[in-house]
Specification:
MetI-like fold; 74% helix; 0% strand; globular; membrane; MetI-like_sf; transmembrane
Length: 280
């Protein structure tokens, strides 16, 4: 019986390893494909899509940065997404703490409504959002992206942070109140230092989803010279041909901030995902 059980356990472990390896390969290979394509000429790309670059075309990156103005679009995206993520984290932390630790009427209903907004397809809000931004005369400006980005990412951020605060022991708040701390002081001195894992999780989710957003950016900025990186990549496409080498280089430049950001926050990201699993 014990031998059979060990065999089943070993098979389960091997199966999970195979599934994990397959998932890693399907995730990593597109990144490698983009990096290799970014070092090819367009003619070489059309000759053999899957081949290794015979002559590294490093000038593809200079074309992407300077000729196609990806450097300018990179700065624009960094400003828009950076401001959006900071506002999302601040507002999400305050709202999450209030819904977790303060006596807010209809708290569960509020959380349900917040979650329900995440199931709405983005296409359903494009038209009313554009009309609202147009009447506010914000179309084509940074705010035409920052305000919607905050609204789209804030609900799930509030829910994640709220669940994190619920998982913390009540004794922390009670001891702070016994020491004479106000709610603001309790949040700032006691709760804020503990919420770094939850903030990192929300920051990664928000940054990744907003950094590559194209649909709303292409609509809000269609009549403006302002361009984000995903929208700016369309410059490589013409009616008859796509310059694949510089375009892949531009896509690689999009991936670099995401990978760097995740490398610095991965430890807190894992802690944030598991922080609300067990109530302390």
């Amino acid at each position: 019986m014990s031998t059979s059980r060990n065999r089943n356990t070993s098979r389960g472990i091997n199966l999970s390893r195979i599934i994990t390896l397959a998932f890693v390969l399907t995730t990593v290979y597109p990144i490698l494909f983009v990096l290799l394509t970014s070092l090819k000429s367009t003619d070489e790309f059309y000759t053999n899509v899957w081949s290794y670059p015979h002559h590294f075309q490093w000038n593809n990156y200079s074309k992407a940065l300077f000729d196609a103005h990806i450097g300018v679009y990179f700065t624009t995206s960094l400003i828009i997404v950076g401001i959006s993520v900071i506002c999302i984290l601040i507002l999400g932390a305050l709202a999450g703490y209030a819904l977790a630790r303060l006596h807010v009427p209809y708290r569960n209903l509020i959380l349900f409504l917040l979650l329900s907004t995440t199931f709405l397809p983005s296409e359903t809000v494009i038209m009313p959002l554009y009309i609202m931004m147009s009447r506010m005369k914000l179309v084509g400006t940074y705010l035409s992206l920052i305000i919607p980005y905050i609204g789209w990412a804030l609900p799930i951020t509030i829910v994640i942070i709220q669940r994190f605060f619920v998982s913390l022991p009540n004794e922390l708040i009670e001891s702070a109140r016994m020491d004479g701390c106000t709610e603001t002081q309790t949040f700032r001195k006691v709760m804020a230092p503990l919420m770094l894992p939850a903030l990192a999780t929300c920051a990664i989710f928000s940054f990744v989803s907003l950094w590559g957003e194209l649909l709303w950016a292409s609509i809000a900025l269609s009549m403006s010279k302002v361009r984000t990186i995903p929208f700016g990549i369309l410059n490589f496409q013409s009616q008859f041909q796509t310059d694949w080498g510089p375009m892949a280089a531009a896509i690689a430049l999009i991936l670099i901030p995401l990978m760097i950001f995740f490398l610095f926050t991965q430890k807190y990201f894992v802690q944030g995902l598991t922080g609300g699993a067990v109530k302390g």
